[in-house]
């Protein structure tokens, strides 16, 4: 998944100085960003008020879009470093190609997990023969310093564990929830889960009080800790919670994102996560010169050129703007 903004802003993330240590209800509004030729996304992280939730550093929600007569998602080859990408669909299909030679179609409720490590490039596209609707989320997880130079790899998991309760079915995408653990590889204490709620469902979800959490609304209307949440919005919840009240006024789906607050300060610019101005600038140079990130074979089109860097040095500053 690429940040296709041709004038990307620098996001300085991480560090514990601005972690909210107690439960809060902080509603995050999205901004709209163009994705490829025919799709728009709602960007929830990085946000004007908050840059990270645990190690989750980037969250886009898109659709549902009627692409019956449209090309759908068409994201040409682009680079990543220092992060993991998580592809999560409710409707439609996305064909993933990468510079390792991976070729995989990701379908609804399947995990497409790419660990960029030191460097990788990939493309994402809606297949020529595809479903009418496209609806999903694209997310990034920042890699800690000890693991951010690992060898790149791609994982696809079609069978994920579930946690169920009356009116609730939770698919564990990453990490662990209520004793159920995802097979996806993680490098920090983290959790990601997709919760399907039937109309009238009311439950309390067990949480880790050492984690900070947020809930992204995917569809329908759910009340999260008594806050009504509509599709495309996200509620930041802070830390210190042992459970989370959920109530659905219609059939609904939300994503729970959480993790141990990310200690390190990071620099995130375009599709790179690094630690210094020099590192980001070197990554841009390597991509433009055809070094290090490899080649995506089979995609019909040229790779995406990197935007121009800002004229001032990039400096870490903290978790919130």
Automatic annotation (TrEMBL):
GO terms for molecular function: metal ion binding; quercetin 2,3-dioxygenase activity. Transmembrane segments: none annotated. It is an enzyme of class 1 (oxidoreductase). The keyword Metal-binding applies. Residues 298-321 are annotated as: Disordered. Fe cation binds at residues 78, 80, 122, 124. Keywords: Dioxygenase, Iron, Metal-binding, Oxidoreductase. Residues 302-314 have a biased composition (Pro residues). Its cofactor is Fe cation. Residues 42-141 form the Pirin N-terminal domain. The keyword Disulfide bond does not apply. This is Quercetin 2,3-dioxygenase.
